[in-house]
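User: Hello, can you help with two protein structures?

Assistant: Certainly.
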Amino acid sequence: MGRLTGGDPSLLRRINSAVVLRALRGADGSPTLTDLTGLTGLSRPTVEGVVEGLVESGLAAEAAAGTSPARRQGRPARRFRFRAEAGHLLGLEIGPHRVSAVLSDLTGRLVGASERPVSEEAGADERLERVRAAVSDLLRRSEVARSTLRAVGVGSPGIVHADGSVRLCTALPGWTGLPLGERLRRSFRCPVLVENDANAAILAERWKGAARGCEDAVMVLAGLSPGAGSLIGGRLHRGYGGAAGEIGALHLLGRESFPERLLSTTGEPLHPLDEAAVARVFREAKEGDEQARRAVDRYIQRLVHDVAALVLALDPELVVIGGWAAGLDGALAPLRAELARYCLRPPRVTLSLLGEAAVATGALRVALDHVEDQLFSVQEAMG
């Protein structure tokens, strides 16, 4: 890479463009050139030149002039707006029983959503075909061209490498070793970014859910194999190999507390072990069935142990519970009570506000973060 100097005109243009575009998107209403000059601290000629370039690129447009009767005589000041419709972002969730997709403009405002059921026994090819079908349906119904997609975020179970490949996954058949990012990139002409589903979920909760404004938080997806996503100082913590938060493996430490045994009401392992079977046990417990109530108590106790391990290690301000436990009446009270016993400083515990939408919403946030780094980040512009 060539040496950059303070007078490098290309670098300065990129920095100025990022600063103006960020101010334009964040401004209330439609700012004038004078407004943008004040917001950015740049000279008026510089701002005017940058805005003209943004208009030409399609990222900005001249807004309609105001019609206030108190307006002074003469030509009104030109006003501009960020064109959120200049591109679109896609968030995908790939799960055991369904795949879902959400679509937004460049501000993250939702445009539409689509979902497809899929068998838990489906192989990788069939599952990915369902993803493509959900995306095609969503783009068609939303009347959005595939060419306008700027980035695609994906939330998937398993340990995910930075290149989008899945190192290990026990939740989906044929998923371990799958080059997921590479497979999906064949369907898009934009970056595809793959994230662990629990990591995506905590990003979503911080963006639009229960963890808004929280810098240190843990999101627990309580499912067949509980997983957790963690924010430390506002940053996602993936761990050295991407395996941070895989609390579903704690039973390997000598506590053979597999979900199919914990949730059994017959003494035999619960089979098939899926969301429908677990929902039945929860429902029977709520209706007063003693065997089901004991099964649910055992499940909550395991969840407490798993969450306590994270809390003791990370000392989060907040624990957000999603997945099965989010729909379990009375789960929070025993969780809070047991964490108070186990933990030196018990965190706040709350249920997910996003529910089943958490993973897809977090995947959308991953795509939005990528595009914002490209368009608005001065650090990105500095290379």
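That covers the first. Now for the second protein you mentioned:
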Amino acid sequence: MPDLTRDSDRILSESRALVRDNREGGRHRRTSSIGQGSARIKRSNLTKRIRNVILAVFAIWVASGVIGAIVNGIGILGVVAVLIATIVAIGVFGSFPRLKTPTRADLTKGDDVQRLVGRTELWLEAQRPALPPPAANLVDKLGVQLDGLGMQLEGVEQNHPKAREIRSLIGEQLPEMIDSYRRIPAQMRREERGGSSPDQQLTESLSTISGEIDSITRQLAEGSLDDLAIKHRFLDYKFGSGGDAAPQLEHKDRGDD
């Protein structure tokens, strides 16, 4: 009996925790984009769908016009057939091509590290509903950080040491960690083992990756920061307080003359 009692208490406790997590994390289980990279991929897919619909409808109406010219009108039945064909075309081509969530293998396809950033954002969005609320919060933060990282990667060579570091960090280590977590049965994710639970370990690991992404972004931005500082000093010298001395001295010399 004591064992049954403990099991019942544990099941009730886990059920209450699950309900609480669903309430707290409901706002994180949305389908909105976590970053501009994934949003860009979605917009591109939507653009292709709209293009396909327009081309299909245009082809149907052109074909109906040609047939009508040949047979001297298509009649009521022809008009109805064209309308039905238009509706079918909108339904079919409006959902094609489907937006495919990248797989683990898809993340590292190709050499373009900027594309890797966008695909990783899209992959993270698909994983977010299965993560505990604290980790879901960090996924949203990672989306913003990956956007900043993507901007800094413009013009960076694909063989640059930082590019290779990024491929390893977000193309391998990040997905491996989340996949390892998801393979753990849901009822065991809150159980402490060695002083921490899988939920806590996942959150801490995501926080570490977040810090690494921020560090890499700052290192890549150092060149832009230095360039801005140099330009600022030049403008300050030419038009600011540094550039006032020369005109004043010239004016004084003219006065002496």
